[in-house]
Structures are given as structure tokens and as C-alpha cells.
Design brief:
It catalyses: glycerol + NAD(+) = dihydroxyacetone + NADH + H(+). This protein is 53% helix and 12% strand. By secondary structure, it is of the alpha/beta class.
Amino acid sequence: MTKIFTSPSTYIQGEGELFNSAQYLEKHGKSILLLADESVLKIVGNELNDYLLDNNFTVKIVVFNGEASELEIKRISEIVQKEQSEIIIGLGGGKTIDTAKAVGDNFKITVVSAPTIASTDAPCSRLSVIYTDDGQFDHYRFYNENPQIVLLDTKVIAGAPVELLISGIADALATNVEATDVRQAQTDNMVAGKQTLAAKAIGQACEDTLFQYAQLAIAANKAHVTTEALNRVIEANTLLSGLGFESGGLAAAHAIHDGFTALKGDIHKLSHGQKVAYGTLVELILNGSDYQRFEKFLKFDLELGLPTTLAEMNLDQVSDEDLMKVAQQACSKDDTMNRMPGTITPNDVFAAIKAVDEYSRDYQAKKR
């Protein structure tokens, strides 16, 4: 049995760290491609560009088109080749960072993950989720190493909309649920090895931190201030969840999220984390959790305003036929449902999706 644990080379988290980054970056080169979408450029990207220029870096700004697709990766790769960039900085959300990792891998240059929100666990991992140009899950792309630098400016993250922090909490809350099922099944983590004791401990620490500090962190984020609680949750959403999902493994929750990409319509107005939240509840049904553990997650989701019914997923009119498409996509051989204990079929997934909806509607009706 081979156990594998993987992590970024350097993780930096603190107020103002984007504008203290020259000392870390200069060890890797002076020519930078800065990838960010238009809104992130306005919020902090243009200011970061000025800081880098003042510190004698050469910077090429590239506006991210919004989808981590093969076409977008190819477009940006051509620019890197032309500019002969030594470093690529993915500044923004998960899809921006996943695209930067793919481009960096194409040329074996330094990758810097610089999330401006704590909404996903993408920044630390050595994989990318690749989508089609219209946003449907396509495949995972795996790399030989993690980003060299993960850089979080908590002042910037505290200024982001609170809905994004809540989405990250929902995403991170799946970490220990999935890692526990992977461990029980004795299947591989995301780097083709078995879990270490460190991965197990990190997954549990992630879950414990979220249940203990989420509400206090949300209050701080609403006030746009950094507190110890917010710092803890940012770390849980990004570092603990990132290490925990990769070295612990993904299972049903994220496969369910990917299954929802088979649908069209208003479900895609929801964030990654909101869809993962529903997928986590589905996994708790699939793994046979008792009602106390299920209700612990359900109550927490409801307190955070996360979707726990099909109507709240904008699927109140969804047909059984379409839900079966979700279940079939979730059970794709290219996804992670096969890391669950036992054999999970599309029929099992379909039933669990329906059961979550029914349980949550009944639970909420009793609480009125």
C-alpha cells in the first residue's frame, strides 16, 4: 500500500500580502503573466500590476474569459509562449486559478494561486477541473506538482461578498465527508495513493473549524473586517480543504455537483459550493449516515442559507428523466463516485437526490 500526501511549496495568508509578494516572486523570475477577469482587475488586479512594476517585474495582463476550458487554456498558453513568461499568477476565483495551473503546467513555469475570495479549495491543489466552453464538466486534469506559491490577502477576501465565503464553507464541508468514505472504501485519493494520517487529521480539522467558527467568520465578512474567526475559516476553506480533498480524496459530493452540469437552466445561477452542499447531503444518504449526522449538516446548511431542496436548487420543475441524467453523469467513469464504499449506481444516486429533497422539505415544515 502506497500512501501519498501532496501540498503547495509555500502557503502565505495575511492582510496586505499581495503587496508584500515581491520577496517571494523574485526567486522564480521577473517576467509575469497576470491572469484575472475584468472585475478582479478593477478590485485589486490593476493595483497589483502597479506594485509589481514598481518592483521591477515585467507584467503582461491577460483578461480571463470566464471558463476553464481547453480553448481558453490554449489561448492563454499562446500568450505565455509569446511573452516567454516565467511566472503565471491566477488572481481571482477557482476557474481562473485552475486555468492558470493548466497553462503553467504546459510550460513548466511557476504557478502562483492568488485567490481573492475564499469560495473554493482550488488554490492549493495540483489538479484542475476542466469544463466545456458552455460550462459542462468535462474532466479532471492532473499535474506532477502543486502550485509553488499560494498567496491569500485576507484584507481583499474580507471585502468580498459574504455569499462567496458561504459558498466556500459549503465546498469545504464536503472535505471530511468525502475523505472518510474514500478511507472506508480503501480507494485512492486524488494523487493515486492511499490516505496518510495527516490527511485524515486535516479533514477532521477542516470540518471542526467550520462548525465552530463559520457564523463568527460570516459576521466579520459582512462587516468587511478580518478577525481570528475569519482567518480560521479562510484557512479551512482554502488550505485545509485543499489538502484534505486532494490527499484525502473526492467521492460522491463533488460527483453530484458534476452531475448537475448535465442540466440547463437556472441551476447554473448557483455557485459551485451551493451545488456541492446538496451533493454532500446526497452523499450522507448514500453512505448510510444516521439521522443525527444528516440533520447536523442539514441544520447547518439551512442556517447558512444553502440549498437543501430541489426547489432551492432552482429545480422545482425538474423531471425524473432529467434527474436520472444527473445521476448518470455523476456516475461517469471519469468522475469520483467510484471511490465510494461499495458500488453506487445511477439508480442509487437518483433515489438519494429525491430523498434529500423530501427529508429537507419535511424538516423545514416541522420547524415552521
